[in-house]
Amino acid sequence: MAKILIIGSANADLMLAVPVLPKPGETVRGRDFVVAPGGKGANQAVAAARLGGEVSFVGCIGDDAFGSSLRGALSDSGVDVSHLQVAAGVASGIAMVMTEASGENSIAISGGANDRLMPEDIDVLAALIGQASLLICQFESPMATVERALELARSRGVPVLLNPAPARPIADSWLDGLRFLVPNRHELATLSGLAINHPGDIEVAARQLLASGVQTVIVTLGRDGVAHIDSAGITIHPAPVVDAVDTTGAGDTFVGAFAAHWCRSADTDAAIAFAQRAAAFSVTSRGAQASMPWLADLD
Length: 299
Ligand code: RIB
Hints:
Blueprint: E1 3-7, E2 11-17, E3 31-38, H1 40-50, E4 54-58, E5 60-62, H2 65-76, E6 85-87, E7 93-99, E8 105-110, H3 119-123, H4 126-131, E9 134-137, H5 143-155, E10 160-162, E11 180-181, H6 185-192, H7 199-211, E12 216-220, E13 226-230, E14 233-237, H8 250-265, H9 268-282
């Protein structure tokens, strides 16, 4: 089976439902506090594994209670955690997640043990990277570590999907040869340096990234759907209509589901449609990993 290797973060999400997201200096009364497994890398691994992918996750957790439950959540979804590291005496990563009634959220993270995943930790996994059918990275790990993973994949001809979240500017050299770049609107603006105010701006910004060597740009636009841009043109895939309760992890569900389908089918449009269904399913209940579908849920 095609192997998906995901290098990234695992966080304990401290989740609070609020009527509206507080403005600076404002206090709002929340409810339904829960601690749930999250982190962009772990979320994407869980989504891909639940949807039929053979997935290995590389990350770093602390030797605390949060770390144990993050490992358990990955294993329970069928993710191989044999390369998951533990940083002694370091707290696991956490994310403070506030979700308002519309389903929109606001997130602040503390990297914790995620920040201990070093480039040298990736060097020793060169053989594992070389065996992957797809490598997926995001930006919640140290940037030098992400860069090393991309270099190793590139030198071994392994296709890479980069989800540049949370948004950070990068050198053009990072983009060269990427099989898939999957930003949201905000991340697209950061990477391209262009404002995204109108629908036409998306194609202009994406074409700039294609010119830097990306093969396919897939822009996730929430309820506006997905824009797929490559040398053949642009396709807009409308989003399934659902009542959103919590959008936390919807982008991660999209990435994991896309990877699972693409590794089976090598069909980008079909993988996008599948990933949209998975992401739509995920926003109908609370939590990042808690709301992600299994294959049977999408039948
Ligand atoms: O993408 C959603 C994730 O972002 C949350 O699970 C949180 O941990 C942050 O990393």
